[in-house]
User: Which sequence fits this backbone?
């Protein structure tokens, strides 16, 4: 694997943006037939390095060679033509077009200028069969789940005769089975001699699939290692640049007793709450200071529960009691009036307003609650924004730059700050740690613990069971759009039991607790 | 040396640099062609000259474009402003023409109030169609664009209403402090809209709704109200512009008043740097955009370009202005950074697709 010559080398790459030094003198090489993991915290420069490689950005300094020839791509199209294909973290496909159209858009087989649709469909089917996907290639892509869309994006990338395949966070929205399927495909492609650059935040996945690891930190190169020679703990230390005692802190945190927490009047109590086609009617109580975890597979109705509780979607029926009095959660504005905040899992489409500055994004929910006639005084804005930029360690710490210039993890922190500024009584966090690095993840987990200690109720949704179990006082389990169980998180509860519940849908009798 | 270069970049990077540069080049070209172009003289206590004319004649366009800026910022578009100009002018002139004393201040104020009232109702109509019923803005306002012309004809009974009212005429042709009153009206409107949006949180909320309506809703913004308000403000601006247009000629023509002004206004907004896709808006840019368009019109007359080719000439200049502002286009001509042209930041394109 390492005895051949690298297919791709990047040497001395530097890249700056106004106010940010994104990359400084970074070297990177990629051999044919290997899976190479690029690791680093948010803002370490992973995305920038990939964008420099694929020609989205030009470099300030440094050189790239592909097959020993110097190259300088001026755009992703050119990179793709040279055999460097990329699948980005957020799926960049057109959901309104069919699966086949998405795979061949921009390079349809043509005859005398007319697209040969039969050929498009035939080749799409063949390609998907190779990936073991059984899809109707004429159906619109939007009718399939996000996970399937990701697979289609990979199908599109490998069909272009790729020699280098870049996968930027391909697994962040996939469940375990789908990850296994993806890895099978990755191994298959690797054995065909394709060099795969793999970016992920899941350490386990790195150790499962990667042959080699390159670590970046703060825009600089830390080193290149063989996976077998780098224990997981040292990898994390190299990524965050310090000893790892923060993680243990949360484990040791003594969890308050659920019964004590649930003594008083619930902050929010819903019963028979549901929406046709989204989630079956469920009942749930959330008390002040309580962290309720929501576990379940992708598509099991976790997000739907969150959206109903925030009024983002309207419930068909059921009763809502807030502080014991009957209330209503029919629009986000109403929910916010009751002190509910909601960080969506889809931060680009439903979270940030990309054009606005970091400051404006943070202040948005508070301003919306006050109404436009009562602007938050500028001095108060600056105070609040400063406080949260520091508290959440948002980088770069310039509140006036557009939020789109921040990395994904920092955008997530901006969204958290948006809600913390409103001092909510119930904060709904839908996958707040997805696609962000271990350092920021730990910070967010610590924050959740602190907030609930301070009396805030949190509804915590995550695909990672360990995370849910670590933080929650009570775990509600979703399965096939039903809330099948609510389990007190005491000593007897572990990941296995939650998995069993997810798998079998037992403990149904507890659902009406 | 390096410092000069970076200062140059900061300057050219400012969003008002290219519109202002275009305006400057136009004025310079005119001055070269006709050296007296910029001269201003004082006659009977009033200032006269081509620059003053440009300012005075651009006042209605500035007004319409201000409202249009807000609507476009929400991600919408208002095609009905031309018809609204005609309606407001028609109502005011019709009322005045029916009164025995057309020059009474009371009559004129009543006429303006009536016309403004009707315009606000029509703006609210647009707002309801877009924000409450959810019709696409381009279609919703197309209704009033077409129907409004008929409404204006109905008010004037198909005639051109001529009036003889000194206070009303002053809106278009009066003077104050040696300058045309229209300039002050446009300036006041600009300051008012700026204060209304930037001294409150309305501006930021409009930008948020236009930038990402889903995220804005989830942040608790009741976007319907904000969008509704933008169309009402647009209608109010158009109404005042309608007064000016009819006051200039002391007559109301339901067919001709404000014809195609919506297109000039959209152009002014885009030249000013506000994206047609919604989001950030720039009132000062819009004003410069309106001045560019009026200067262009004046240039066409001043250079004796035949009426047959004047529209073509205008189109060519407008295309050039838009190209100069596009970062991707400029990059092709300024290969400062070695062999690779700098990437075009997607969000900085001055115009994108019409949300339709």
Assistant:
């Amino acid at each position: 694997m390492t005895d051949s010559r690298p297919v791709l080398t990047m040497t001395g790459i530097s890249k700056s943006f106004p106010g940010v030094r994104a990359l400084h003198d970074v070297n990177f090489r990629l051999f044919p037939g290997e899976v190479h993991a690029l690791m680093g915290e948010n803002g370490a420069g992973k995305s920038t390095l990939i964008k420099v490689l694929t020609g989205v950005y030009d470099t300030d300094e440094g050189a790239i060679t592909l097959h020993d020839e110097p190259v300088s791509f001026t755009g992703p199209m050119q990179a793709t033509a040279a055999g460097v294909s990329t699948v980005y973290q957020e799926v960049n496909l057109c959901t309104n077009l069919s699966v086949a159209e998405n795979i061949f858009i921009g390079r349809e087989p043509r005859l005398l200028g007319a697209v040969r649709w039969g050929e498009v469909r035939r080749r799409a089917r063949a390609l998907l069969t190779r990936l073991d996907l059984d899809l109707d290639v004429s159906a619109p892509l939007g009718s399939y789940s996000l996970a399937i869309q990701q697979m289609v994006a990979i199908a599109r990338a490998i069909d272009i005769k790729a020699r280098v395949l870049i996968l930027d966070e391909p697994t962040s929205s996939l469940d375990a089975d789908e990850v296994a399927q993806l890895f099978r495909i990755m191994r298959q492609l690797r054995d065909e001699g394709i060099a795969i650059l793999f970016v992920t935040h899941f350490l386990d996945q790195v150790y499962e699939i990667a042959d080699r690891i390159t670590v970046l930190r703060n825009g600089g190169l830390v080193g290149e290692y063989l996976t077998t020679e780098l224990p997981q703990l040292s990898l994390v230390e190299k990524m965050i640049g310090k000893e790892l005692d923060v993680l243990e802190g949360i484990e040791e945190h003594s969890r308050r007793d659920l019964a004590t927490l649930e003594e008083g009047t619930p902050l929010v109590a819903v019963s028979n709450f549901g929406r046709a086609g989204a989630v079956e009617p469920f009942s749930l109580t959330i008390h002040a200071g309580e962290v309720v975890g929501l576990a379940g597979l992708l598509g099991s109705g976790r997000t739907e529960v969150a959206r109903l509780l925030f009024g983002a979607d309207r419930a068909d029926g059921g009763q809502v009691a807030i502080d014991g009095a009957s209330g209503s959660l029919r629009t986000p504005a109403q929910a916010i009036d009751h002190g509910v905040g909601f960080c969506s899992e889809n931060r680009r489409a439903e979270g940030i307003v990309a054009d606005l500055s970091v400051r404006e994004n943070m202040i948005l929910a508070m301003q919306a609650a006050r109404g436009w006639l009562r602007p938050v005084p500028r001095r108060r804005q600056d105070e609040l924004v400063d406080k949260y930029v520091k508290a959440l360690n948002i980088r770069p710490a310039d509140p006036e730059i557009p939020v789109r210039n921040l990395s994904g993890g920092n955008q997530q922190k901006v969204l958290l700050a948006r809600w913390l500024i409103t001092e909510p009584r119930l904060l709904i966090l839908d996958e707040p740690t997805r696609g962000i690095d271990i350092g920021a993840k730990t910070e967010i987990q610590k924050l959740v613990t602190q907030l609930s200690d301070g009396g805030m109720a949190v509804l915590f949704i995550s695909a990672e069971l360990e995370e849910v179990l670590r933080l929650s006082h009570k775990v509600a389990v979703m399965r096939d759009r039903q809330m099948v169980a609510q389990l007190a998180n005491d000593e007897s509860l572990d990941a296995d039991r939650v998995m069993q519940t997810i798998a079998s849908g037992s403990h149904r009798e507890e659902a009406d607790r | 040396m390096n410092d000069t270069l970076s200062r140059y970049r900061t300057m050219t990077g400012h969003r008002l640099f290219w519109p202002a540069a275009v305006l400057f080049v136009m004025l310079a070209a005119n001055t070269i062609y006709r050296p007296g172009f910029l001269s201003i003289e004082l006659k009977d206590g009033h200032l006269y000259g081509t620059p003053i004319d440009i300012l005075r004649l651009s006042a209605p366009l500035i007004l319409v474009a201000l409202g249009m800026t807000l609507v476009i910022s929400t991600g919408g578009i208002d095609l009905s402003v031309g018809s609204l100009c005609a309606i407001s002018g028609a109502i005011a002139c019709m009322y005045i023409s029916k009164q025995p004393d057309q020059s009474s201040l009371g009559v004129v104020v009543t006429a303006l109030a009536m016309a403004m009232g009707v315009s606000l109702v029509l703006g609210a109509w647009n707002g309801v169609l877009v924000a409450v019923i959810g019709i696409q803005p381009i279609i919703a306002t197309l209704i009033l664009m077409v129907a409004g012309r008929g409404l204006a004809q109905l008010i004037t009974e198909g005639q051109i209403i001529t009036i003889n009212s000194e206070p009303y005429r002053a809106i278009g042709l009066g003077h104050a402090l040696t300058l045309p009153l229209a300039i002050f009206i446009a300036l006041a409107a600009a300051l008012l809209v700026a204060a209304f949006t930037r001294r409150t949180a309305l501006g930021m909320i409009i930008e948020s709704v236009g930038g990402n309506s889903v995220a804005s809703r989830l942040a608790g913004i009741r976007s319907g109200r904000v969008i509704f308000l933008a169309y009402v403000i647009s209608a109010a601006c158009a109404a005042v512009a309608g007064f000016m247009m009819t006051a200039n000629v002391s007559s109301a023509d339901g067919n001709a008043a404000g014809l195609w002004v919506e297109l000039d206004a959209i152009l002014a907004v885009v030249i000013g740097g506000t994206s047609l896709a919604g989001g950030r808006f720039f009132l000062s840019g819009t004003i410069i955009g309106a001045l560019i368009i009026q200067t262009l019109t004046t240039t066409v007359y001043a250079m004796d370009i035949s009426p047959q080719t004047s529209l073509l000439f205008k189109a060519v200049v407008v295309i050039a202005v838009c190209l100069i502002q596009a970062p991707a286009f400029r990059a092709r001509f300024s290969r400062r950074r070695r062999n690779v042209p700098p990437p075009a930041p997607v969000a900085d394109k001055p115009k994108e697709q019409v949300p339709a």
User: Anything to note?
Assistant: Chain B touches chain A through 29 residues (CB under 8 Å). Chain B has 15 helices and six strands. The two ends of chain B are 48 Å apart (CA to CA). The beta strands of chain B are 40-43, 46-49, 160-162, 175-176, 179-180, 251-253.
